[in-house]
Amino acid sequence: MIASNGQVSQKRLSERRPVGAVRSDDQSSSNGEPHQHRTGSANLTSGVFGKSKRTWLLVAAAAVGAAGFGFVSLASSEHANDVKEQPRVLAVTTVAVEPVTSYVSARKYTGAIVARRTSELGFELAGKLTELHVNEGDFVRAGAALAQLDTEHLETNRRKLVAKRAHAAALLDEMLAGPRSEDIAAARARVASLQAQAELLKLQTARQKRLVPSGATTQDEYEQYAFGLKAREAELSEARHNLEELLNGTRKEQIEAQRAVVAEFAAAIAEIDVDLQKSTLTAPFDGTIARRFVEAGTVVNAGQSVFRLIEDAALEAWIGLPAQAAARLNVGSSQRVKIQGEPFNAVVASRFPEVDPATRTRTVVLELDSSASERIVHGQVVRLELQETVEAAGFWLPSTALTKGARGLWSALVGEEERSPDGSTQTDLLRVARRDVEVLHTESDRVLVRGTLHAGEQVITGGTHRVVPGQMVRPAK
User: Fold this and answer.
1) CA pair distance 169, 166, nearest whole angstrom
2) Do residues 403 and 358 touch, judged by C-beta distance below 8 A?
3) Are strands 287-292 and 299-300 parallel, antiparallel or unpaired?
4) Closest Cα to residue 339, out of 319, 356, 310?
5) 416-468 pLDDT per residue, tens
6) Count of other CB atoms within 10 angstroms of residue 71
7) Which of 96, 98, 97 is closest to 475 using CA atoms?
8) Tell me, what DSSP letter sits at residue 213?
9) How many H-runs (helices) and E-runs (strands) does the chain carry?
């Protein structure tokens, strides 16, 4: 191999010789001058073989280097195999799990702030709306006038009824006062006059009756006197009755009837007064005008909404809870609610007696502190947090201890104690094993699970992505 390399080098050198030198060698050989030819050939051979020697040395050095590199590579491979045979033991953080039979869950329920009273205010009468005294957002006191209807026709009817009542009352007063003495005297005089006239006619009738048989008078004249006497006696009887009535005074029944007439007119006037009062819309309680539905000049119907009034000084929180949770809240107990993240004190005022068919919850009413009305308004969202004890057996684990298992389940990696061939326990080494678990409850940084875990097992809580089942690990100190 070395000779061939030398030959190749010599061939390359000969190919690189000048053309003139080659021709001189050929000519010298043909002219029979061997000495000169040897000298030239010797010099040329010496140069060629000198370069071949250097090439040989380079090739030999390369071969020795390759052999050395092979020995080094072989040694490195053997060292790597030795390292690979000794597995790396990772340090992991673990925690010993202990079983629990229950846990406390903080559950939040959402409700709304509701004013204690919210009314749609309107008139009881139909009529033309003439005045509006308040606007939306105005705070009003109970009894304050809010709006006014046209009352002209009511006032006219009232004046008419007042006049009629006055006339009936005067008649009643006359009945109660009784007849005047002048009327009684006039009645007596009339009785006396009629009585005298009746006595005169009686004498004249008797005389005419005696004269009829003698023919001094006729039968017609007699009959005229007789009928005249009867008429006068009837007038006398009436006059006597009138006098007796005057002397006895007005009958009690007539007085009561007249009193009823006066009372009827008074009731009609009172009805007009009620209508006049109802023509002014007033605030039934202290509150704020939330909405105005009509404007002045509108003809409104009876019961039509004009304003919406909210009693914002007394606010309540209405929260729907499951029936079991609502039953645990005693009336009068203090609770803590949050509105836009700000806590407020509240007291359980009442619980609705039925379940809402839409939400299947029972509404609990909580009264807020009076100071809360300055910072919250009707309709805001309120949240109530309740602590509930739930019966469930399992183990608490840090959330970092969970890893994804098969078929969408969860797993936890535990460190089992490794035993030596002699049966003794190596306390400083643990072998990783998998435990399938089911998540029962989650909190901020921990979870409650149940599954194939056992009490006291060392669960790996950190770096679970760096270890696999069967790997040896060491508890971190």
Assistant:
1) 5
2) no
3) unpaired
4) 319
5) 887 666 655 556 788 899 999 999 988 888 999 999 899 999 999 988 888 88
6) 10
7) 96
8) H
9) 8, 22
Bridge pairing between strands 305-310 and 287-292: antiparallel
DSSP 3-state assignment of 254? helix
Q: The tokens of 472 are what?
A: 């040896």
Residue 83 to residue 365: CA distance in whole angstroms: 73
Tell me how far the alpha carbon of residue 184 is from its chain's centroid: 86
Q: What is the pLDDT of residues 228-261, one digit of tens each?
A: 888 988 998 888 888 887 777 667 888 899 999 9
Judged by DSSP in three states, 302 sits in coil
Dist. CA 311–CA 115, nearest whole Å: 6
pTM of the model: 0.52
8 Å CB contact between 402 and 411: yes
Q: How far apart are CA 84 and CA 116, in angstroms?
A: 78
Whether residue 191 has pLDDT greater than 70: yes
DSSP state of 1: -
The helix or strand, by DSSP H or E, that contains position 413, with its residue range, turns out to be: strand 410-419
Pairing of strands 90-92, 472-475: parallel
Identify which of 379, 350, 347, 344 has the alpha carbon closest to the alpha carbon of residue 363.
350
Q: How far is it, in rounded angstroms, from Cα 278 to Cα 260?
A: 27
d(CA 341, CA 310): 24
Cα separation, 51 vs 57, whole angstroms: 10
- Provide mean pLDDT across the span 139-148: 95
Q: Is the pLDDT of residue 11 over 60?
A: no
Q: What share of the chain is helix, strand, coil (3-state, %, to 5)?
A: 45, 30, 25
> How many CB atoms are closer than 10 A to CB 138?
14
Sole residue written with tokens 């409700």: 111
Coil/strand/helix, residue 31 = helix
Give all strands (DSSP E) within 293-409, no chain letters.
Answer: 299-300, 305-310, 315-321, 334-339, 342-351, 362-368, 381-398, 402-404
Q: Does the CA dihedral 273-275-279-283 come out positive or negative? A: positive
What are the C-alpha distances in Å from 109 to residues 184, 197, 378, 383, 441? 92, 107, 18, 5, 18
- CA dist 378 and 116 (Å) reads 10
Chain position carrying tokens 């007009």? 272
Q: Please give the sequence-ordered ranges of beta strands (E in DSSP) within 30-76, or none if there are none.
A: none
* DSSP code, position 18: -
Contact 105, 441 (CB under 8 A): yes
